[in-house]
Each structure stands twice: as C-alpha cells, then as structure tokens.
Amino acid sequence: MKKKMNYLVLLLTIIFMVGCTNVEDATTTDKETDRKVAATENSDTKSEKEEAVAEVVDEAEGEEPEVEETSTEGDKEEFPGYDILEVDGGDLSGFRQPNVVVDIGFGERVYWAFTNEYGQLVRVIADEIIIQDDSTEPVKSSGRYYSDEAKVPGVEKADLDEGHIIADSLGGVSNAYNITPQESTLNRHGDQAYMEKSIRDAGGATNFEAIITYPDTETQIPSSYQYIYTLMGNEIVDTFDNVNPDEVNESLGLTRNKPSESNSSNTNGDISSVDTNGNGQVTIAEAKAAGFSMPITSDHWLFPYMDDRDNDGMVGE
C-alpha cells in the first residue's frame, strides 16, 4: 500500500512538472509570437514609410524646381534682335554699338534708343516724356544735367551742334545714344527747338517716337528727322530735314523784311527784377522764377547776363 502511494505521488509530480513546462513553453511561445508579430508590424510600418519617402523622392527628382519669373524692362524678349546696353548718361564717347537698345532717360525716366547694324541712331521711343525739374534734380546752372555732350562724328563741323533727340529740358541724357550732329540753326531756333518748346509748354508728352534717317550707311549725320507724339490728346507729326531752315526759307523766297527777333522791350539792361541776389548774373532758376520760358536764346535781352557754357547760343535748352 505504501509503495502504491509512492508511485501515485511520483506520477502526480511528473504530471505537475509537465504542466508547468507546457505553460512556460506556451508563455515563451506567446511572447516570441508577440515579438515576431510586433517585428513584422514594425517591418511593415518601416517598409510603408520607406516606400512613401521613396515616392516623394522620386516625385521630387522627376519635377523641375519652381523658379519665380520676374520680368524686367531689360528683358531681351521685349526688344527681339537687340542687345540691351547700359551706358552712363554723361559718357562723352561718340561711339555707338550696333543693334543695341539703350535707356537714355535721366533718373527714373525710361526712354529707349535703338541703333541699326551700322551703329546709327535710328529710333527713340518713350511712353511718356517727363520734363526736367530743376527743383528736385541735379541740374547745372546751364540748365543741363551734364557739362558736355557726346562727341558723335560730325559734331566737329562748325555748322553742326551736338543735338539731343530728347533734350535735357525733356529729361534726356547726353551720351551718343541721344545725340546726333544737327544743323545749328535747326537745333537752336528751328523745328527742333520749336518741338521741344511745345512739349515743355504742354508739361510733357506721351507716345513719343523719333525716327532718324541717314543718306547712307557710312555717316553719323542724319538727313532728316520725324517726331510723332501726343500733346493734350492730339497726335502731332513733325518732319524736317537736317538743314538750315533760314537758308531754305530764303531760297524759297519766304523771308522778307524780317523784323527784329529781340524778345524784349527792355533796352536799358535792367536786370534788378530778375537778378534776385544782385550779383549781376542771371541763373536759369532766377529767369524761370521771373516768368521767362526756357531756353533763353542769344537774341534775348537776358542772354548776355546768363552763362552759356557750351557756347551754343542757348541757355536752359
């Protein structure tokens, strides 16, 4: 009986140990299974993230970076066939490059000048002509922005001036892209001077275009000019040859007993009402303040009291 009891105890012990082992194995198996599932899930998640990142990278590599486009007035597409060139407004060189466009407006003004394949200045355009403002701009006592003008071939001739296409008084600079050799009388007293005065008196102009014509491809001296512009809503077309208008009029019999061209009834030379600082000289600012229009030409009674630094017979043009 005692022996049977021992066998029974041994059997129960074995059964208990096997049960514990199975539980531990099950627990271990469950833990390992959990770890494997978690690893699989993590692997799947990592794989999904890697795929998503790869897709973003592929998309980024397949696309061009976005670049913000900025259009400027100097964009070549604005002037096809021309190179845009920057030239200092006071450059005295008379040389022009061919097939270029240059801004010849002083300050913030935008006036475009074009040359042809021979370096001839053939066209000037401006949406708006803004007249000179000597109260806010660095205007010299001569009424000019610069002390001299570009020496374009031809201006060395005695009867030719360094003629502006757009005058200082209208906001133009003095480099070769705004200067042509122009007959002196035409420039100072003729159609050119009259056109400039008309624009000044109107306070400016719009839709401005100048077409300059030459007799051949070798010279820099124009044969004629045509100006088209709008004054107070009216389109004006001025066309004239680069010749002395007085000689032309005389040859046509249009000049008779020409009256004196003096612009003044003041024959005593009393400048006290104009010469505000009493130094015996009249500046452009003083003349304007006294109500005189520019330019003051050599036939004006004020002219002897003013500074014509370039000796062209005009002050304040």
Provide structural commentary.
With 317 residues, the protein is of the alpha+beta class. The protein has 2 domains: 82-251, Extracellular Endonuclease, subunit A (Extracellular Endonuclease, Chain A), CATH 3.40.570.10; 262-317, no CATH class. It contains 5 helices and 11 strands. The chain has helices at 2-62, 184-188, 191-201, 245-251, 284-289, and strands at residues 83-85, 100-103, 112-115, 121-129, 160-164, 179-183, 205-213, 224-231, 234-241, 296-297, 314-315. The strands form 3 sheets. The chain has a 7-stranded mixed β-sheet, covered by helices on one side. Strands 5-6 form a two-stranded antiparallel sheet. The protein has a two-stranded antiparallel sheet with strand order 10-11. β8 and β9 (234-241) form a beta hairpin.
What is the count of β-strands? Answer: 11
CATH superfamily of the largest domain: Extracellular Endonuclease, subunit A
CATH topology of the largest domain: Extracellular Endonuclease, Chain A
Specify the biggest β-sheet.
7 strands, mixed
Q: What is Rg?
A: 44 Å
Residues in helix, %: 25-40%
The assigned CATH architecture of the largest domain is: 3-Layer(aba) Sandwich
The proportion of residues in beta strands is 15-25%
Shape: elongated
Number of domains: 2
Order of helices and strands: HEEEEEEHHEEEHHEE
* N→C terminal distance: 145 Å
CATH class of the largest domain: Alpha Beta
Q: Biggest sheet, strands in spatial order?
A: 1-2-3-4-7-8-9
Q: Regions with pLDDT < 50 over 5+ consecutive residues?
A: 25-29, 36-40, 59-75, 257-264
